[in-house]
Give the backbone structure.
Amino acid sequence: YGHGTQEIELPEEKVLQVINGNPSTKIEDVKQATLEAIRNPIGSEPLQKVVVKGDKVGIVVSDITRSWIRTNEFLPVIIDELNLAGIPDEDIFVLVAQGTHRAHTREEDIAVCSREVADRVRIYQHFSKDEEGLTYIGTTKRGTPAYINKRILDADKVIITGGITIHLMAGFGGGRKSIMPGVAGDTTIQKNHALALAADVGAGASLECASTKIDGNPLHEDMCEIAAMVNPCFLVNSVMNAEGDFSRIVAGHWYDAWLEGTKDVMTIQGVEAKAKADVVIASPGGFPKDINMYQGSKTYDTAGMALKPNGIMIAMLDCPDINEPQAFIDSFRFSDML
C-alpha cells in the first residue's frame, strides 16, 4: 500500500484463497543479466553491432508510474554498452515516455534513470499536446493518425526500454507501448485507446481488448503498426517476479524479444483461482502501481476475474497523485455512461 503496508485479519475458514504470483527465478546480478541479454539478443544483432560510431541515439524510458520496472538499474548498462560501440554520452539522449501523463520533476528523472544517467546524458520530457514537438508519420489501417515526438524521429537509432506485465486493454504492457502511447501525440493516443471500447455506445469495453489477449486485439495491433513506423533498433524490457525482483531481462528485436517476455509473464502471473469469491481484497503491489486511480484500474481488472457477480471488491490504493491524469478524473463529472 503506497510505500508501506496495510494489515488485515480474517477468520481462516472464510479465506478461499490467497493469490500470489507463481514461484520464479530472481536475478542476483542485474548488470550481468543485462549484459547477457544485450550481447545475446532475441531476433537481433547484439547492441554493439546495431549502432555505429556517429549515430545519434535516443533511448525511450517509462515514466515514474512505471518505476516498478527499475529502469535505473539497467539503463546505465545500456549507455555503457553504447560507449563501447563508439557512441559518446553527448550523442545519447533519454526521452521519458509520459504518454498523456504529467512531466517529471528533476527528482523523478533521477529516480527513474539513476543519478549517474541524469548527470551524464540529456533527459527530455514528452508532451503529448505539444503539436510543435510532434511529427505526423502516417495513418494506420484502423484510421489512427500517427503523431510521434520529433526528437525520437530525428535520432539515427532508437532504443526502447520498459517492463512487461499484464495489461487490461493491450493484453500486455511493455514493448510497443514505449512508442504508442509513450511518445505519441494526444490525438493519436485518444484514437488508439478508443479501439478498446465496444462498437455500441454504452456497451462498455471491447471483449477483444483484454488482459493477456494480443491475437485479434485491435488496440494492440494498432500500437504495433505505429511502432513499426518508427522501427526501434533495439529493445530492453524487464520481467519482474511476484516479489518485485528481476526475474528476466529480454533484449533484441522490438517485437520478438517483447513477445518472448510475455511468455515469462504468464508463467509468473498465470495463477488459477480455485473459485470465484464473494469478496476480493486486492492490491496492485504498492507504489507506483497505486499512484493514482487510473493506474489502479489494473487492480480492478484482475480482481474482477476472481469475484462473483454482484460481489464486493476492496481495492487497496494509496493514490498520492489522485488528480492525475486529469482527463480520467474529469470523467467522473458525468452522471451516466453515454
Q: What stands out?
A: The first strand starts at residue 57 and ends at 62. The radius of gyration is 20 Å. The CA atoms of residues 188 and 196 lie 14 Å apart.
